[in-house]
Amino acid sequence: MSNIILIGMMGSGKSTLSHQLKKMTGYKIIDCDDLIENHENLLIKEIFSLYGEKHFRKLESDFLNDFNDDECIISTGGGMILSAENRLRLKSLGTVFYLSGSVVTLYNRLLDQTSERPLLEKEALHNQLSELLEKRSDLYLEASDYVISIDSKTTDEVCTEIYTILRELDYIFSV
Ligand code: S3P
Question: Residue 123 is part of which domain span?
């Protein structure tokens, strides 16, 4: 399948980038968090507080297993790669790009956005990001086909980098 899959930590720019990539490729955006929120009629933070993280992870995996479309840009939640099954499934759906950023980059981007994110608190943000990244780095690497560094780059630069790879892979675009 020739989907474009974006993985990476919260704050790595998956959603913003997916909109930019849509303009360049004409592909549809599939935002996993948005679709889960719409399906459950609850915000992610409400799902976490009412039913817990485990339940949310199950919803993520269910979504991924049911997904059966092509020519989409799939913007995943940062923890989608936690399950080994999800990591395999993502690769089977297309080309997986890991948007890799340092703790400092992520910290600066997320400082004003902690209230929407159940796993982060403003006061402890730096430590929480370090811990999550430490736990997840290898999983992001394992799940990805390409690692794209986002440090000191604009969205346009990251987008062009991904677009160039996709053209080399003979992805066909309608725009
Ligand atoms: C999470 C990332 C969030 C969302 C949830 C959990 C994570 O998505 O799925 O809050 O565990 O990293 P974004 O990466 O789109 O912010």
Answer: 3-168
